[in-house]
Amino acid sequence: MAEGNTLGINVGAGNMDAKINDQSLGEDGILDGEIYYRRMLTDNLGIEGGWRQSFEVPVFSAIDSILGVDVKDVESSGPRLSAYAEYPLQGGFSVYGKGGLTYYTLEYSLRGKQMDTSSLGGEVAAGLSWDLGFLGINLEANYARSNKVALTTGRLGLHVNF
């Protein structure tokens, strides 16, 4: 991909480790997604900004309710900014990596009371992209962490180059 702009969406699943009241709470069933805008500064380097959202799969929230779990409806969200680098392969394929900062807001319900906390954290990702002219798809492994939340996800994405 040459210099230009990209608008995309990534969705996936994974797990979240949230730190609530100094206790670790593992959530194995989360959905994770983001929308992003990327501006390539050179053929291989760019900057990317977006919004990330992760939340418990509703089925797991229902199970928590049945089991009487104190912490429910865990989700995290926030804006992010990353440096992006890609290396082109043949046939429209390229491998890429990105790393940057995300400002997370962790929201949850504790014994029926809505709670939230915020923190700044980092994010790294690596993936494979396939561009077919102005349209492309990608497959990505993503790891994000702050002092309140850690996310490990696999994602599939769709993007438009313009």
UniProtKB/TrEMBL annotation:
SUPFAM superfamilies, per database record: OMPA-like
Originating organism: Veronia pacifica
Q: In which domain of life is the source organism classified?
A: Bacteria
Q: What is the lineage of its organism?
A: Bacteria, Pseudomonadati, Pseudomonadota, Gammaproteobacteria, Vibrionales
* Keywords assigned: Signal
Tell me which residues make up the Outer membrane protein beta-barrel domain.
6-148
What protein does this entry describe? Outer membrane protein beta-barrel domain-containing protein
Q: Which Pfam families match?
A: OMP_b-brl
